[in-house]
Automatic annotation (TrEMBL):
Residues 1-14 have a biased composition (Basic and acidic residues). It comes from Enhygromyxa salina. This is Signal peptidase I. The active site is at S164, K221. The lineage of its organism: Bacteria, Pseudomonadati, Myxococcota, Polyangia, Nannocystales. Residues 43-56 have a biased composition (Basic residues).
C-alpha cells in the first residue's frame, strides 16, 4: 500500500490536473457562448495553476500568436464566422490584459490563453496560417538575406593566394575585409552608397578589389594613388614620388632600410638572400615593403601616372615581384596620335634651327585606361642648358705623367683651390646607405673651383694613378656637397670594378648622354712608336683630334719635362729636375706653339697645331739628333704629315717611320696593349617646357557619334572661329595651349585636336600647316592604326573595390593581427 505521503501527492496531482485541463466537449460549444465554456474559463482563473514552460518561452509564444491572430483578422476577417472572430478578439484582449501586469503576470493563465488562441486559429483559420514548409523556407530566406547583407556590407573572409603583398601578407593567410569602411555596396552591382558619410579610401590602405582585366578574380594591393594624384615611379620601383591633387611639387614616399630583419620565402619561414626590407611611410600608414635584389633593374627611366577621377593606382608590398598597376596591360588594335604627326613632320614645318633640339614623345605619362580609341601625344622641344651639364673624365694610365695630367687639368679648368671632401660636404657630411662618407674620405687631394655657371673638381683614384675630372652645372650641382657626393659615387664604383667605363662610374643622371671616343679607339686617336734604345733613340707620342683637349695635353707634356707654365707646380709637388730650357717658343715654321727642350738624353720637341688639331711629343736622342737643328728638322717632317693624317685616321702611324730615323730598329710597345687611356661621359643638360611644345589628341569612332563629339569639344574652346580647308567642319581658337585647331576626318570617323605653343608655332599659319599634315595622314588608317599593341591598364575603378583588409584571423601564428 502506498503511504500517506503518496496518497497526498496523488490527490494534489489530480486537483492540479482538474484545474488546468479544459472542460471536455467539442470545440463549438466553447466558442458558441454556452455557460459550460465560460464556467471552464472561470475555473481556470480560480483554480491553482502551474506553468509547464519557462517564463521567456511563454511570453514569446503569446506574443507571436497574438501577432499571427491580428494578421489573420486583418487579412481574412471576411472568411471567418463572426462568433469565432468575437472569441478570438476576446482571447486577444485577455492575453493583453495578463501581459499588462508584467513582470508579475500570471504565467500559467497566459500560457493557457495562448494555447486556447492557438486552438481557435487551428480550428477556424488554418487556411491562413503558415505551413511548416513555408515557415522553414522563410527562415532560410531570411538567413540568406542576413548572410548576404553581412557579406556585402560588413565583413567578408578572403584567403591570400600569393606572396605579392609580402611581408605584410603571406600566401595562405586568411583575412577579414571590412566592406562597410568605404560605404555600402549594393549587392551584385558596382554602385556604392553612403561614401560621403565616412572618410573613404586613403593612401596606404590595403584593399580587396575585382581585378579590372578579369573581374571574376579578386586582388589585394595597397593604395598608392587617389583620383587627381600624379605618381612617378622608376623602372626598378625603388623610387616613388607623389604629387597630390592640387599640389605643385612631388613628394618622395619616405622609406628607411631595415637592417635587423631578413626576407622570408613566399611559402615558408626560411630566410632568403638577395632581398632587402624597408619601412615605408605613406600618410597615416607605416608598413614594410621588400625588394628582390636579384630582380633589380638598371633602367634609370621613370613612368608617370595621372590617376583619373573614379580610379585608383595600387601596388603590392613585394614591390618588384608583384603583378600590380604598374604591370597590367592589354593587347589589341589601337590608334596612335604619333602616326598623324611625327618628329620629322614637326622639323619640316616649324622653325627649329638649332641642331641640338630634340623632340620627345610624352608617352611615359599614362592618364587613363586606354580602350584603343583615344590617344594623345605631346612633343617637347629639348633645348640645351649648360647650367645643367655634367661631365666626367677618367685618365687611366695615360702616356703622360699622371701628376702632370692632374696639374694640367686643374690649371686649364681653373680648379686652383686645394680642398678636402669634408670641407666640400660641410654639414651634410655623414654616413648613409651608400656610405658616401667612407668613400669620400678616400678622395685624397682635391682641386676645386666654383665658376659663375659651373663647378670643377679634379681628384685621384685612391689605389691607382687614375685621374678624374668632374664638371657640373650649377643647376645640377647647386652646392659643393652635390659635386663631392658625385665624386664619392665615382670612387665607390671604381673600387667595385676598376674596369668600369665612365657610364658605369656615374649612373642615374638625367639628360642626354654622350660618350667619346670610346675605350677601343686607341689606334685612331693616339700613336706611340720607339726606335733604338731608350735614352739615345727616337720616340714619338702623337694625338689626333683629341677630345680631351689640346691645351690640357700640351701643358701636361711640357710639365712632364719641367717646362711650360706648370713647371713650378710640378717641381714643388713632384720631384722632377729642371732639365728643360723654357725660354721661348721656337721661331720656326712649326708655328707659335712649338717648344724645343734640351735635356741630358737629347732633345724634346712639343708641338701643338690648333688648325690641324694635332699634338706631337718627339724625343730624339744623340744617335739621330746631334743638335737642336736635327731635332727641329725631324719635328718639321712630322708636322708636314699632319694634314694627311688628320683627314685619314688610318694613316696615323705614318707620322714617323723607320726611314725617318736613319734605320734605327723599332722597339715593341711597352706593356700589354690597352684601350684608349681617356674615358669620357657627358650628360647634356636640357630644358623641357610647354613653351616649345605641340600637343595632338585623336579619337576614332567616338561614343555618341562624330558630330556630337566635335560639338562637345568645340564648347571647350575659347571663342572658336570656323575655318575652311580642314574638312567639312573645322575650328580655330587662340587658347592658353597656343594655336589650336579642331577638326574631323569623316572618311575614317576621326576627331583631331592640335595645339601648338608659340615656341614652335610663332604664328597661326605654322600651326595650320601641322594640322593639315595631320589631316592628310588621318585619311589612311595605315598611318595611325597599330595592330596587336600592348597598352597599359593601370587604374582600378572605384566601383571594383570590395573593402579594406583589416585583420588576419588565421593561421594561429598570426591570429587577429592587424593589417598595417
Amino acid at each position: 500500500m502506498p503511504d500517506d505521503d503518496t496518497q497526498h501527492a496523488a490527490r494534489d496531482e489530480a486537483a492540479t490536473t482538474e484545474a488546468t485541463t479544459p472542460v471536455s466537449g467539442d470545440a463549438n460549444s466553447e466558442v458558441s457562448g454556452e455557460p459550460q465554456g465560460r464556467n471552464a474559463r472561470a475555473n481556470v482563473k480560480r483554480g491553482p495553476r502551474v506553468s509547464r514552460r519557462s517564463a521567456g518561452h511563454v511570453r514569446s509564444g503569446a506574443r507571436m500568436l497574438s501577432r499571427e491572430a491580428a494578421r489573420i483578422l486583418r487579412k481574412h476577417r471576411a472568411r471567418i464566422d463572426a462568433k469565432v472572430i468575437a472569441e478570438i478578439e476576446a482571447t486577444l484582449a485577455e492575453i493583453e490584459s495578463i501581459r499588462s501586469q508584467r513582470p508579475d503576470e500570471d504565467l500559467a493563465a497566459l500560457e493557457f490563453q495562448a494555447e486556447h488562441l492557438d486552438e481557435l486559429l487551428h480550428q477556424h483559420a488554418s487556411f491562413a496560417r503558415k505551413s511548416a514548409l513555408r515557415d522553414t523556407i522563410e527562415n532560410i530566406v531570411i538567413a540568406v538575406v542576413v548572410a548576404l547583407g553581412v557579406r556585402s556590407c560588413i565583413y567578408e573572409p578572403f584567403k591570400i593566394p600569393s606572396g605579392s603583398m609580402m611581408p605584410t601578407l603571406r600566401a595562405g593567410d586568411h583575412i577579414f575585409v571590412n566592406k562597410f569602411a568605404y560605404g555600402v555596396q549594393i549587392p551584385l552591382t558596382t554602385k556604392v552608397v553612403g561614401e560621403d558619410w565616412i572618410s573613404g579610401i586613403q593612401r596606404g590602405d590595403v584593399i580587396v578589389f575585382r581585378f579590372p582585366l578579369d573581374e571574376s578574380d579578386d586582388f589585394i594591393k595597397r593604395v598608392i594613388g587617389l583620383p587627381g594624384d600624379t605618381i612617378r615611379v622608376n623602372a626598378d620601383r625603388r623610387n616613388i614620388a607623389i604629387k597630390r591633387a592640387g599640389a605643385d611639387k612631388f613628394e618622395t614616399v619616405a622609406r628607411e632600410k631595415i637592417e635587423d630583419e631578413k626576407c622570408q620565402a613566399e611559402n615558408s619561414t626560411q630566410t632568403i638572400e638577395n632581398c632587402t626590407l624597408y619601412r615605408e611611410t605613406l600618410d597615416e600608414h607605416t608598413y614594410q615593403v621588400r625588394y628582390r635584389d636579384d630582380l633589380r633593374s638598371n633602367d634609370p627611366s621613370f613612368r608617370t601616372f595621372e590617376v583619373p577621377d573614379g580610379y585608383l593606382l595600387v601596388m603590392g608590398d613585394n614591390r618588384n615581384a608583384s603583378h600590380d598597376s604598374l604591370a597590367w596591360t592589354v593587347s589589341g588594335d589601337t590608334v596612335t596620335a604619333a602616326g598623324l604627326l611625327s618628329r620629322p613632320d614637326i622639323r619640316d614645318l616649324t622653325a627649329i634651327e638649332n641642331e641640338r633640339l630634340e623632340l620627345h614623345d610624352d608617352g611615359d605619362t599614362i592618364r587613363s585606361n586606354d580602350d584603343g580609341h583615344h590617344d594623345e601625344v605631346r612633343y617637347l622641344a629639348e633645348r640645351s642648358d649648360p647650367a645643367r651639364d655634367l661631365t666626367l673624365e677618367a685618365w687611366r694610365a695615360p702616356p703622360i705623367d699622371a701628376r702632370a695630367i692632374f696639374e694640367s687639368l686643374a690649371a686649364n679648368y681653373g680648379a686652383t683651390e686645394t680642398t678636402t671632401f669634408a670641407t666640400l660636404m660641410g654639414k651634410q657630411l655623414g654616413a648613409d646607405d651608400d656610405r658616401i662618407a667612407e668613400y669620400g674620405a678616400k678622395l685624397g687631394e682635391l682641386r676645386y673651383a666654383k665658376h659663375e655657371a659651373t663647378s670643377e673638381l679634379v681628384f685621384w683614384a685612391p689605389t691607382a694613378d687614375v685621374v678624374f675630372r668632374l664638371h657640373c652645372g650649377v643647376k645640377r650641382c647647386a652646392k659643393p656637397a652635390d659635386l663631392a657626393s658625385r665624386a664619392a659615387q665615382v670612387i665607390k664604383s671604381f673600387e667595385a670594378n676598376p674596369d668600369y667605363d665612365a657610364r658605369e662610374l656615374l649612373t642615374y643622371e638625367y639628360g642626354r648622354t654622350q660618350t667619346y671616343p670610346g675605350r677601343g679607339q686607341r689606334d685612331t686617336r693616339y700613336l706611340e712608336r720607339r726606335f733604338g734604345s731608350e735614352h739615345d733613340g727616337v720616340r714619338i707620342r702623337a694625338w689626333r683630334a683629341p677630345h680631351e683637349g689640346l691645351a690640357v695635353l700640351r701643358d701636361a707634356a711640357l710639365a712632364e719635362y719641367g717646362a711650360g707654365p706648370l713647371a713650378p707646380a710640378m717641381q714643388a709637388r713632384y720631384e722632377l729636375a729642371a732639365l728643360a730650357s723654357t725660354e721661348a717658343a721656337v721661331a720656326t715654321d712649326l708655328g707659335p706653339q712649338a717648344w724645343v727642350l734640351e735635356h741630358e738624353h737629347g732633345w724634346t720637341v712639343v708641338h701643338a697645331d690648333e688648325d690641324e688639331q694635332m699634338l706631337s711629343v718627339l724625343d730624339c736622342g744623340p744617335k739621330r739628333c746631334k743638335s737642336r737643328t736635327d731635332a727641329l728638322a725631324l719635328a718639321t717632317t712630322v708636322a708636314s704629315r699632319f694634314p694627311v693624317v688628320n683627314k685619314d685616321r688610318d694613316r696615323l702611324s705614318e707620322l714617323l717611320g723607320q726611314a725617318d730615323v736613319g734605320g734605327l730598329p723599332e722597339q715593341p710597345p711597352v706593356g700589354p696593349p690597352i684601350g684608349y687611356f681617356w674615358d669620357h661621359l657627358t650628360v647634356v643638360g636640357v630644358v623641357l617646357d610647354d613653351s616649345h611644345s605641340v600637343n595632338i589628341q585623336v579619337e576614332i569612332e567616338p561614343e555618341g557619334g562624330l558630330e556630337a563629339a566635335l560639338e562637345a569639344r568645340k564648347q571647350e574652346l575659347r571663342a572658336p572661329e570656323a575655318v575652311e580647308g580642314l574638312g567639312p567642319v573645322a575650328w580655330y581658337a587662340d587658347t592658353p595651349n597656343g594655336h589650336t585647331f579642331l577638326f574631323s576626318v569623316p572618311e575614317t570617323k576621326m576627331l583631331v585636336e592640335l595645339a601648338c605653343r608659340p615656341g614652335l608655332c610663332p604664328d597661326r599659319e605654322t600651326a595650320r600647316a601641322l594640322a593639315e599634315r595631320a589631316r592628310e595622314k588621318g585619311l589612311d588608317p595605315e598611318n595611325y592604326l597599330q595592330k596587336g599593341v600592348s597598352r597599359p591598364r593601370p587604374f582600378v575603378p572605384r566601383g571594383n573595390v570590395k573593402g579594406r583588409a583589416e585583420v588576419i584571423w588565421w593561421p594561429s601564428t598570426r591570429f587577429w593581427k592587424n593589417i598595417d
